[in-house]
Amino acid sequence: MLRYFLRPLGLAGAALLLAGHARAQGQVTPPATALPGQAPAAASAQQPVHHEHDEADNWSVHFQQTVIQQWHNDLSPRYAGDHSLQARENAKLSLTTTLFLGRRLWKGAAIFFNPEVAGGSGLSGATGIGGAPNGETFRIGDPSPQVYLARLYLRQLWALGSDREQDEDDLNQLKGSRPARYLALNVGKFSIADYYDQNSYSHDPRTQFFNWSLMSAGGWDYPANVRGYTAGAVLEYVQPGLALRASATAMPTDANGPTLDFHYGKAQALTAEVTKTFSLRNHPGAVRLLGFRNQAAMGSYNLAVRNATGGAVPDVTAARAEGRTKYGFVVNAEQEISKEVGVFGRFSYNDGHNETWAFTEIDRSLSVGITSTGARWKRPTDRLGAALVANGLSGDHRAYLAAGGSGFILGDGRLDYGLEYIGEVYYSIDFPRYHAALSPDYQIIINPGYNTSRLPGPVHVVALRLHVEF
User: Fold this and answer.
1) Number of domains in the chain
2) What is the reported pTM?
3) For a Cys-Cys bond, which of 173, 297, 327, 379 suits 293, CB 3.0-4.6 Å?
4) Full domain range(s) for residue 447
5) Percent of the chain having pLDDT more than 90?
């Protein structure tokens, strides 16, 4: 099975997997989302501790592969629509494979290039649940592995002081010293989640929680094409204890579409965030406040319902118009409790007047959770996590679904509204010698798609993840 998925990489990708390019630290770590200036919170509970070195590298080469097998119990739905969770289906397999290349260019500048392969499918094609259970899947019809460009961007830093800090060689991060206080500009193609809504315990479906509404703030309809990437610019101001970020990035040309719209005057996403780190009884923590405003040719839920006369089913795509907006905010917090245990929480909101355009059909979301190392049972590099999520919809959105409308994620044909509740527990078994981790996962989903009457009971989802990283 792995040979089949690796085939698109060719000999170079297979050689990387076998040769290893192993790092000195013997632990699987998240992708390059913990950028300089992010909170050091819970580094001991979620990431390996790096040791400072004086030497710098001009190149960085890394590799990751994540395979997830996922299954849900047989269901007995009372009715179904075009985008309902299927009553019975075979287990679904997903795969992502990424090569991370970085090159130092001149003082303060580096370029990063990430080709990626993805294949497989989510449960029910990643439809029927607002908080979909596999963050490594996309709503793409063809499950065969496809090669595409994930990231290609330039990063330029300008020092704002003489103090220096040390970065280790990591995914999309070059080894060497950098200013402790700096201004940075990132321009190109990337994931907006590389810079915003960071959380040491709940941000990466390759190494942490699987669920969409735990890898990111569910109510943030973050700008991205169907595979999760956008293009634009992110400006950062970072100093010890504080980080400010602002960006202008592209939206897709169509809801959940593969193509980005570069007519920035008509469609764009404006995002800003402030991160404050602190120490509570000598344990690090962080609070992040994010605000966003998206503009695209979105459809209006209210207008779609009003236009559906004579018993017709409303169609939000027929109620689209240029210049429509969506705005919202995210509050994101994390706190280390001990060297082994950390807690986190998020609350996110969007106005929900216009259709979901990029991420998923969630307009309000609250999540809380806890993670721990395995130190108490003599497995210090293992990770155990448990979390609870409640997702909700705006009044306009629920009225549209209740009238029989469909989005690109949801559409049961009717709606007896209630909050969608999700619980998730995972355990990551680390194999440092092989730079790999094996993670069984369990999720329970109550009212999938916000429907209280469609199913007589909850959905049980079990999964197994294999993650390899060099």
Assistant:
1) 1
2) 0.87
3) 327
4) 2-48+59-469
5) 84
